[in-house]
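Filed under: proteins

Residues; backbone shape codes:
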Amino acid sequence: MTTTPRAVRRASPRARRRPANPADPARPLLPDAEPVSLLDPTGTPLPARTDYPEPDVDLLRELYRRMVVGRRFDTQATALTKQGRLAVYPSSRGQEACQVGAMLAVRDTDWVFPTYRESMALVSRGLDPIEVLTLLRGDWHCGYDPAARRTAPQCTPLATQCVHAAGLAYGEAHQGRDTVALAFIGDGATSEGDFHEGINFAAVFKAPVVYFVQNNRYAISVPLSRQTAAPSLAYKGVGYGVPSEQVDGNDPVAVLAVLTRAVEHARAGNGPFLVEAHTYRMEPHTNADDATRYRDGAEVDAWRDRDPIVRLEKYLRDRGELDDVAVAAVAAEAEAYAADVRERMNAQPTVDPLSLFDHVYAQPTPQLIEQREQIRAELAAAEQEGDA
């Protein structure tokens, strides 16, 4: 037998006609039901949106240039692993719109917190590619000065940069600066505790952070379906009171538009913003990974047809903002960039094994000092054998 709840029985006819949840507090936080897109996969513009206005065409041309150079850098770095010049390299081929669009959405005075996959983003930010590849070559913990470049070291542990970004952004805001911190995250990192701790802290204290999730479908070999039952990763912001959005990560125009709005939201003192970009990693997780074990060629081919560079080039050509001469000039610039990287990476670096122990702790522990002296003794013994 079905009974009518007391509250409903007592409600007036007018009350029963009232919409459910007339002031749903979650509504402003929810992302669009479908990823925001301003260009279709062929590069044809979709209907304009007032909430995400199209970026200036000069910025789109610069976006195209940096994407082409970035992809050439990425393929050159991948080749360097096969030549033994890099110990490992996580390619971001296919994710150019996310890598470069993010850098164009922030200022040079903002802070960036990259993962191990953001080498393309860092060279797009203007960092020396050799300094960026220093970590992946195994020469040093970080090849660039994080404070000078306002770029944190590339983070190998998953999601730890989420907490770092929240803390730095809170500190900057506390000192009256309008700095925004942008933290790159992979889809796998949203399953880690540090992601949830970082975004919760940022929400409570209104830290100006943009959490940018590049959902490339696989956390190494684990598909997204084995990580979450949420409609999309963007919905993870709702539980923390953080506005969120999802975007077609292979649509360069949409990525830049959405991230620009997210950064403006954070800079205005409104707290953090979560953006999920739906994209795809064309190459294996790293050069040590065999991606054929967990995905088939048909899936890769389907995403190849959604190439972000081809999409933006087609759009700019159709608008008369790009022609064969300009495309050739950008391609030549990319080849020159790759040649410079190749030449400088072929130079054998000089490293001091004892520097491995520098900067581990502010004050070295007794165990660290003991290990350093053991290495020092081994190096001295090897030198004596060589002189004998």
Q: What stands out?
A: The longest helix spans residues 57-82.
